[in-house]
Amino acid sequence: MHVRMLRLRGRRGFTLIEVLVSMIILGVIAVSLTKLLQSQSRFYDDQTHREQARGIARNAMNVLLSEMRMVQDHGGVDSVSSDGRTLRLIVPYDFGLYCGQTSSLITVSMLPVDSAVAAMASYGGYAYRDSALGTYTVVASSSSQTPVTSHDATLCTGNSGSDAQIKTMSVNGRTGSVLDLLPLTTTIKVGQPVFLWQKVTYQFKASTTFPGSIALWRKVGGTDQELLAPFDTTARFNYYTSGSETVATSVPAATDIRGVQLVLNALSPTATSGGSKATANIVTSVFFKNVQSY
Hints:
The chain is elongated and about 115 Å long. The N and C termini lie far apart (116 Å). 24% of the residues lie in helices and 37% in strands. Strands 1, 2, 3, 4, 5, 6, 9, 10, 11 and 12 form a ten-stranded antiparallel sheet that branches. It folds into two domains: 47-87 and 216-287, no CATH class; 93-198, no CATH class. By secondary structure, it is an alpha+beta fold.
């Protein structure tokens, strides 16, 4: 009995001070872990919103570059606004060669074109290349004067001496076409390049998807489409002019423009946990590839 009592007296629990110290240590660890998790959560949220903003800016850049590169450097810009937010271009969507002309029509052999591109295009006219100057002369047409399948394709494909002898091409299951267009008032050489064009307007203006923000809009014909949003109010177009290597600080005349600087300052669609929208500022330049000969 005496030995058992000694053993029981040797068993001690935690003192109140030890318990308090342990609780304080655990509290410090818990607070540190909570702050770490909150910090990581805010970082992930911020990066997610930044990626959304970058995606908007990059997608806008890809859309703009795909059409702007085809514009000719003389007469390719139809009009610009003084605030740098609106740009209207004459954009080619189908290229071909001139075959010949009758009294009422010219006949052209066009390269294969994606059916979706052709279906969505709004025909504005055609342009033919001046072999001496290397520039294209733009011929405007009304909606009632759209291209039609040629009534006599042999003017292009025939083998006689009076025919152009231009073979119609087929690529990846798509076949080129022989079309009749409005006649010219001048004479050009057989085999000169031609293209069909449409007017495309790009504009930064108020978004309907994200009220209070700016969107990039694209208009072809009478259809105005909101492409991407939201953008900051600083998103705009700047311009490069003939004979200058630096971007113009003011909007120049449309006839002097040879390239465009895209200022794509995009925002995330929603605010971060900090209460503000993430930003992605992408600035890139595109110079018109369809240039005259030198």
